[in-house]
Design goal:
Elements (H helix, E strand, L loop, with lengths): L2 H18 L8 E5 L11 E7 L17 E7 L2 E7 L10 H4 L1 H8 L4 E10 L9 E8 L27 H14 L4 E7 L8 H10 L3 E3 L3 H9 L3 E11 L10 H25 L1
Parallel strand pairs: 1-4, 1-5, 5-9, 6-7, 7-8
Antiparallel strand pairs: 2-3, 3-4, 5-8, 6-9
Length: 276
């Protein structure tokens, strides 16, 4: 996909949303809700829901637990746009399509982006039910979303030495402290999916320094940083990675674990947004 096509598709989607949002305050914070976490959108006031399949040239999610719509509104006094479900590389989309939703939110003027996901714990102390604030990532096992002609929102060779904003991380930690919620920090690694990893692969990833693993997120973070938007990420640890427990890995297990975490996750995210 050429730069002109990328820009044109984003502009078409942007113009469509601008018509739908006439008279509303532009969002300043973007949220991406991962597997099993979409119910957080119920906390958005004055909500306007726009299904992805109504938006021109827009990818739609085919994964259970990803509703596939934008929700515009407010959390407290903060104007937000929320992705209730994301699209994935393993669904057969190009990486340009995978990051199109995030690029569209950046085009709409968000200043900060909070990504969330369900992840497998690799580090020994990470267990199902934990929340992990991502401090860095490993994205060498998936294609960069910046491959191809440079998208005009950012430079050809963007710096990725600090993808996750220390300021937002500090706010998440403060929110967790105020609420009495334990959060851990760590490095997240993205694979292509849709298969789960083998135990041998997990051992390799652990040697590389990965603390948690999943099939999304890092490419979205890169696209947002490329566009000059501050990024943070909260991983909900829903299972131990392959070979680290006797439990057979399944998407159903991930969704069930996300359901158990969502109350704690919701409280933390609401408090964080009010601090930003």
């Amino acid at each position: 996909m050429t730069e002109n096509n990328v820009s044109k598709e984003i502009e078409n989607a942007y113009e469509y949303l601008q018509e739908k949002l006439a008279g509303r305050v532009k969002p300043v914070i973007g949220l991406v809700l991962g597997s099993g976490l979409g119910d957080f959108a119920k906390n958005i006031k004055d909500a306007l829901v726009i299904p992805y399949n109504d938006i021109p040239d827009f990818p739609t999610s085919s994964v259970e637990g990803h509703k596939g719509c934008f929700v515009f509104g407010r959390i407290g006094d903060v104007p937000v746009v929320c992705m209730q479900g994301r699209v994935h590389y393993y669904e057969g989309y190009s990486m340009q399509k995978v990051v199109m939703p995030v690029r569209l939110m950046c085009r709409m003027g968000i200043e900060k982006l909070i990504l969330t996901n369900a992840a497998g714990g690799i580090r020994d102390d990470l267990k199902p039910g934990d929340l992990m604030v991502v401090t860095d990532h490993i994205t060498s096992f998936v294609p960069s979303p910046l491959i191809g002609p440079n998208y005009e929102a950012g430079p050809r060779f963007p710096d990725m030495s600090r993808v996750y904003s220390p300021d937002i991380i500090a706010d998440i930690k403060k929110a967790a402290f105020d609420l009495g919620i334990e959060v851990k920090t760590g490095i997240y690694l993205q694979t292509t999916g849709p298969n789960y990893e083998t135990p041998a692969e997990i051992r390799v990833y652990k040697l590389l320094g990965a603390d948690a693993i999943g099939m999304s997120t890092t490419v979205e973070a890169m696209a947002a940083v490329h566009a000059g938007v501050k990024v943070a990420c909260i991983s909900c640890i829903t299972n131990k990675a392959a070979g680290l427990s006797e439990t057979k890995l399944s998407h159903e297990e991930v969704q069930q674990a996300a359901d158990m975490i969502k109350n704690k996750f919701t409280r933390l995210l609401l408090k964080t947004i009010n601090l930003l």
